[in-house]
Amino acid sequence: MYARLLASDASCNGRFFTGVLTTGIYCLPACKARKPKPGNVKFFPTCESARAAGLRPCKKCHPDDFARGADPILEDIETLVAEIRAGPATFTDARAIVHRSGFGATRLFELFRQHYHTTPADLLLRARIAHAKKQLLETDAGLIAIATAVGFESQSAFHDQFRRLNGLTPAAYRELREGSSFTVMPPEGYPLGYLRRALSRDTQSVTEKLEGDRYTAAVRLAAGEAAVITLDISPDEVRAAVAPASCRPSPRIAGRMPALPKAAGFHALVIGLLGLDQDAAAFARLARKLGLSRLVAGRPELRIAQTPSVFDGLLWSIIGQQINFPFACLLKRRLVERTGTKLDHPLGLYAPPTPAAVAALEPADLLPLQFSRQKADYVIATSRLILDRQLDLDALRTMSATRAERTLLAVRGLGPWSVNYLMMRALGFPDCVPLGDTGVTSGLQAALQLDERPDIDATRRLMAMFSPYRSLATAHLWQFNQPIPT
Q1: pLDDT digits over 400-433, tens only?
Q2: Superfamily for 72-174?
Q3: Is the domain defined by 181-277 classed in CATH 3.40.50.720?
Q4: Rounded distance, CA 431 to CA 335, Å?
């Protein structure tokens, strides 16, 4: 327990409480206060037992609140973020957010970084962009009027920030209302070789194919309908298009083709695949400041390709636990062939399975596919939680990172590696570390020239220097020992 205390292991919060006899205070194991000497520590199974010993709760980590499932400070920050997202124009800048919060500037920045993996200014910017996107698609208001309405002081700032995060100008984004294709301009130095590697990790995938510079994938859009997207990749641009999942006439209306999906329905999916809304430049600056230029050498604009859906990321995070990558790909393909939808497509693609399709299985159905009984049980039970609305995947995207992590850790079969992997690759949180990942530990050993691969506690300490960009640090460490792609 003392080792877990020194490691600030949040997974032990609530499993025991740490009493410091010299101060008369009891804390959570992950409390950020200075660590006590072992002779001054006594451990307690509950808050009640600590109080019975004459100790009082820590005012920094609030162990009593944690024990009863409450977190007043987190709730205050979540309420503030909800206000920002609902009305970004009411906050002129980060100082206005600090004033509204009631916290000091340093403390508020610490809380935003801890709970949302961002700064108040960046969260405000993204809230403004989200409101602008909604108005561009749903109204005919002019660009200057929209920029002003969401809180931008100038049209040029609106234009530059919108394009940086969306790969399109505001005017081009508005055109998504009618078309089924669009073209995005990657930032200068965008590493297309690494993108191609990410999009073709499983060369035998039945849901996606990369042939030369054309990527084709069967996906499910926001409403759950299947569609096929294509990306034509070149150094100057990426052309994206979406088509119905089947080219056959609709069975309901003879001779009529299925409705063409609108580009607006899959723009966010493409931006996620390309990672265009990630701050790669900021991480590269941090790495150089730390004296680790070699970590980003040749790929300062590296991004994390997001999974096409949260459910896809969830399935992978369960299937990929504690097995090698090729076998994980094999299990995933077999699950898709068993529960996905075979499309009428020249590449023989399958649309990914829905939670309902996986939930309809029994564990015995997956055993012939070489799933272990435990892995089969986890995949099916989690799908049933989603189907029964006990786990809301869409809500995870808007939660604080803290709330999302706690929600996912409560799901049987999801441990710290799975949860951080899912948060990083499917939910887009920028400050996650899949602890225990061999790619991370071997990358750290090579990049930092360590004598041996770090264990989980050492990994946690070493990765702390990359906060709040530990997700991008993870991506670079994954690539550090790999050959440079063409």
Answers
A1: 999 999 899 989 999 889 999 999 999 999 999 9
A2: Homeodomain-like (1.10.10.60)
A3: no
A4: 30
